[in-house]
C-alpha cells in the first residue's frame, strides 16, 4: 500500500458546540476550540475533524446549511475560522471540515427560490414530485421523519428530504448544482483546510423511479444509487485531486464490496470511508459479529483501499457506555476499546471526551433532549398512542445526545465548559470524570490514549501491518496479530467482567514477548509461554520477539 499521511494519522473529532464555550452564552465555539488546541496537540492527534460551523438555522446542529460561505454566529466568524486554520497548522496538525451537500436548510436562498414557483430557475435544484393518489409520491420513510416528502401548498408538489423536512435534498442531476458545490469546496480548500468529512455522501444519487419499497423501514433505498460514482469521480476530477488533502466519506448501507467502489485507490473517488456495519448491526457489543465485520472489511480492502476505525461519534452513543462497561470497569473498559480502535487496520478516530472515558446520559425528561432525530421519533410514537414514559425509555440508549453533552473539563460548575447556561445539560458525573483529573492521574484513560497514539507514530506495523484473527469463535476474547516484515505484534483483549485464561496462538509460543502497553498495572501472574491470565477488561499489546 502506498504510504500517505492520512493513513498514519489519528483524527480527533471536535463537536464544537459541546467542546468549550469562550463567551458564556452556553454554546461551545471556535474561539473555545482555539483556547484548547494545545490539549488536542498534547494528546498527540494529527488531524482535527470539525463538525459543521456554516451559517444555519441549526435545526439539526449545523447539518442544515443556509449559507456555505458563511459562519454560524454561535460558532464565530470567518476571521476566527481563518485563525483556527493557521493555529492548527502552526501546531503541526491538520484540519478537515464537514461537507454537507446532500441537502441544505429549507431556509437556504436556493430553496426559498425553488419553492416559490414551478417555473423558478432554481426549481430543479431540489427534487419535486406530484402527489400520487392524493398522497405522498411513495411509501418511503426518511431518517428523521415518517415520510421523506413534504407538501408545498403553494405549488401543490412535494419536495424530497432524506432527513428532516427542514433539510431538503439537492438535485445532483442538475449540473448547476454540482458546479456550485465544487465552487464551495474550492473556496474552503483555498482557505487552507486539509480535507473533508463528507456527510452521507453516498446519498447524492437517487433512485430514478421512486418506486414503493417492500420494507420502507430499511432505508437502504436512499443510498448507493446509479450515478453516485459518476458524481464522485467528477468531484474528484474537478476539485479533490488538485489538493493534498484527505477525504472521508460517511457511507451508510455499504458492505466491503461496494465500499471498495468508493475508496479503491484506482477509482479516483475518496480516500477512506465510515461504514456503519458495526453501528447498525450492534446496538450493544457482539464479539462474533464484530470480528466478522472486521475480517470482511480487511479482506475486502486489503491492498486496494483504506478503512476508518471508530466506535462512536456525535451520532452514536459513547462507546464505553454502549460497548463497554461504564460502571465498575469504566477506566479499564475505556482503555480496552481505545486499544481495539487504534490497533485495527485503518485510520483511528477519537470523538471528543472519549479520551477521558466520558459516558452516555439518561435525562429524565424529553424536554432535556435536543436531538431532532430523537424528538421527531418521540412525537411520532406518542402521537400514534404509545406510552410516553415507555417511548422515552426505549429511545434513551441510542439517543444522539448521549455523545453530545459538554466536554467535562474540571469539577467546577458546568464542568468548566461554560460560565453561562449550557445549551444541553452537563453529564452529572463530571465531578469524577473530567480532563483536569485525567491529566493529574498518571494511569488515566487520557494518558493511556496518549501512549496508544505515540505507539502508532513510532511503529509502522500499527498502520501498515497485516491483520490476522487468532480467536475465531471466542465470545469474550479477541486475540489478533498485526505484522509487517520481521515485526509481529500480538493484541489480546478480554472483553468481559470475568478473569479469563487466554490460550495463545502458536505464533507466540516458545518465543519471548515484550509488553508494549497494557491497561493493568500489576505484573501478570500465572502467565506462561502458552497462556495468559487476563483480568476483567484487560487489554495488552505485545511485540513478539523473533526466535533466534
Ligand atoms: O448522519 C447520517 C446518519 O444519520 C447516518 O450516517 C447514521 O449515523 C448511520 O446510518 C448509522 O445508522 C449525518 C450526520 O452525521 C448527522 O449528524 C446528521 O444529522 C445527518 O447526516 C444529516 O445531515
Ligand atoms: Ca459561546
From TrEMBL:
Pfam families the UniProt entry points to: Alpha-amylase
SUPFAM superfamilies the UniProt entry points to: (Trans)glycosidases, Glycosyl hydrolase domain
Protein keywords: Glycosidase, Hydrolase
Molecular-function GO terms, alphabetical: alpha-amylase activity; oligo-1,6-glucosidase activity
Electron transport in keyword set: no
Domain Glycosyl hydrolase family 13 catalytic: 13-404
GO CC, alphabetical: cytoplasm
Location of the protein in the cell: Cytoplasm
Enzyme Commission designation: 3.2.1.10
Organism domain of life: Bacteria
UniProt keyword annotation of rRNA-binding present: no
Catalyzed reactions: Hydrolysis of (1->6)-alpha-D-glucosidic linkages in some oligosaccharides produced from starch and glycogen by alpha-amylase, and in isomaltose
Matches recorded under InterPro entries: GH (IPR017853), GH13_cat_dom (IPR006047), Glyco_hydro_b (IPR013780), O16G_dom_2 (IPR045857)
CDD domains in the record: AmyAc_SI_OligoGlu_DGase
Chief localization: cytoplasm
One GO process term, biological-process aspect: oligosaccharide catabolic process
Similarity section: Belongs to the glycosyl hydrolase 13 family.
PANTHER family per the UniProt record, alphabetical: ALPHA-AMYLASE FAMILY MEMBER (PTHR10357), OLIGO-1,6-GLUCOSIDASE 1 (PTHR10357:SF184)
Name recorded for this polypeptide: oligo-1,6-glucosidase
Organism: Cytobacillus firmus
